[in-house]
Specification:
Layout lengths: L5 E14 L5 E15 L4 E5 L6 H8 L7 E6 L2 E2 L5 H10 E4 L3 H4 L6 H11 L6 H14 L16 H14 L4 E5 L7 H18 L2 E6 L2 H4 L5 E6 L2 E7 H6 L4 H8 L50 E2 L5 E2 L13
Helix pairs in contact: 4-5, 4-6, 5-6, 6-7
The structure holds iron/sulfur cluster.
Length: 330
């Protein structure tokens, strides 16, 4: 069996915050607090959870947009969390990103031609000016935009078209992994489906791996191979799509899925309403981080943190109820 394309081992990212008189007291936002997973070549892993759970921070740590607090990020057997600039340059080519808002991530003064040519030039991928032109025009074909649009600027496109330009720019670097950070969240429903279909087609064509970061489980259900569910900086469940959607094991996953609409007209799930708000990541609850909102909480949950354990061949869950514990009090 070939090694995974990406390995994330016990990743932590704690952001310091100042508080108190004169901002002297230092606290930390425990944005990501011990996250591990792997992505195989050509695989889509979706990272899901509510806003503020740390999923985008995981994506940005993989892209090395900041230094991590602890852990390892390994691409194709090579650590990138502490790689020196020379190695990092090649790594950056191999891992690209598509952000939620293409308008703010595309330079409004540049023409699409230059936006697409930039990564090709930066990574030295074109052999000549003709080769550069061929690459740029074929990227437009790949993301199904007209070649005539190469001379336009980002504000002349719709939201969906701008996201296609963002995808083309990511593809220009010939990556092996694309981090899609809420890449379809800001789009209308029909445009969302078109962009998801495009991503799936590109994945088959180029053998790309995708880390699909999203809060929208309805979209994830149609396009992912596996799902990792995050809550307050930790993964609470990770499993293939079929298992997660047919038999979610963690109480938080069940609550998230209960809000996903069913495709059949008129059909409804029984919604599980969680009490309270997500606690602050500055001072996360002791024991199980979900215990302040969990409908199945019992004594042990308040003092002992559950670890991810296998509950099937490919399903892992962090809940005391999944290790044979009998809940004796609530
Ligand atoms: Fe709920 Fe306890 Fe399981 Fe946490 S460990 S999800 S509080 S039952």
């Amino acid at each position: 069996m070939s090694p995974p394309l990406l390995q994330v081992n016990d990743l932590k990212k704690h952001f310091p915050v100042k508080s108190g008189l004169f901002g002297r007291k230092s606290e930390f936002v425990y944005a990501v607090d011990g996250v591990s997973f792997e992505i195989a070549r050509g695989e889509t892993l979706s990272l899901v959870g509510e806003s503020g759970c740390g999923k985008s921070t995981v994506g940005r740590a993989i892209l090395r947009l900041f230094d991590i607090t602890a852990g390892q990020v390994i691409l194709d057997g090579q650590r990138i969390d502490d790689a020196h600039p020379g190695t990092m340059r090649q790594m950056r080519r191999r891992v690209q990103v598509v952000f939620q808002d293409p308008f703010s991530s595309l330079n409004p003064r540049m023409r699409v031609r230059d936006i697409l040519a930039e990564p090709i030039r930066n990574f030295g991928l074109a052999k000549s000016a003709e080769d550069l032109e061929v690459r740029v025009t074929s990227l437009m074909d790949t993301v199904r935009l007209p070649r005539e649009a190469l001379n336009r600027r980002p504000h002349e496109f719709s939201g969906g078209q701008r996201q296609r330009i963002g995808i083309a720019r990511a593809l220009a670097a010939e990556p092996e992994l694309i981090v899609c950070d809420e890449a379809v969240s800001a789009l209308d429903v029909s445009v969302k489906a078109q962009i998801v279909n495009l991503l799936q087609d590109l994945q088959s064509e180029f053998g790309l791996a995708l880390l699909f970061i999203s809060h929208d489980l309805a979209i994830v259900e149609h396009m992912t191979h596996r799902v990792a569910v995050m809550y307050l900086g930790k993964i609470v469940e990770i499993a293939p799509r079929r298992e997660i959607f047919a038999a979610p094991r963690h109480p938080y996953t069940r609550a998230l899925l209960s809000a996903v609409p069913l495709p059949e007209p008129g059909a409804q799930r029984n919604p599980i309403i969680l009490k309270g708000d997500v606690p602050s990541p500055i001072n996360p609850p002791k024991g199980c981080r979900f215990h302040t909102r969990c409908p199945l909480v019992f004594d042990r949950c308040r003092v002992e943190e559950p670890v991810l354990r296998a509950v099937g061949t490919e399903q892992w869950v962090a809940c005391h109820l999944e290790d044979g514990t009998v809940a004796t009090s609530g």
